[in-house]
């Protein structure tokens, strides 16, 4: 897995979050896809740092996370 630590994030990205996030303003991340990377940021700090991972790494993460049971809250 590789991480993109560049400070440049295109301003015209379409950011979205999971429909499971709800509207309560809790702990959420937003993602935006580019041809080479998937960008990830904290929904509560949109001007903060952005993590970029390869599309393959993101796919592997989603497959892993989607196959695990959700914790009881």
Topology of this structure?
Elements (H helix, E strand, L loop, with lengths): L2 E2 L24 E5 L3 E6 L8 E4 H12 L7
Antiparallel strand pairs: 1-4, 2-3, 3-4
Description:
- By secondary structure, this protein is α+β, with helices and mostly antiparallel strands.
- The protein has a domain at 1-7 and 28-68.
- Helix content is 16%, strand content 23%.
- The protein is built from 1 helix and 4 strands, in the order E-E-E-E-H.
- The chain has one helix at 55-66; strands spanning 3-4, 29-33, 37-42, 51-54.
- A 4-stranded antiparallel beta sheet has the order 1-4-3-2.
- It starts with a strand and ends in a 7-residue tail after the last helix.
- The mean pLDDT is 80.
In short:
The chain has 73 residues and is α+β, with helices and mostly antiparallel strands. The protein is 16% helix and 23% strand. A four-stranded antiparallel β-sheet has the order 1-4-3-2.
Q: Determine the mean pLDDT.
A: 80
Topology pattern, helix = H, strand = E: EEEEH
Major β-sheet profile: 4 strands, antiparallel
Strand order of the largest sheet: 1-4-3-2
Helix content: 10-25%
Shape: flat
Measured between the Cα atoms of the first and last residue, the distance is 30 Å
Keywords:
73 residues; alpha+beta; four-stranded antiparallel beta sheet; 23% strand; flat
């Amino acid at each position: 897995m590789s991480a993109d630590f560049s400070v440049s994030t295109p301003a015209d990205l379409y950011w979205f979050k999971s429909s499971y996030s709800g509207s309560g303003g809790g702990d959420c991340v937003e993602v935006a896809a580019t041809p080479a990377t998937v960008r990830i940021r904290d929904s509560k700090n949109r001007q903060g740092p952005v993590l970029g991972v390869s599309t393959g790494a993101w796919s592997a993460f989603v497959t892993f996370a989607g196959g695990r049971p959700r914790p009881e809250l």
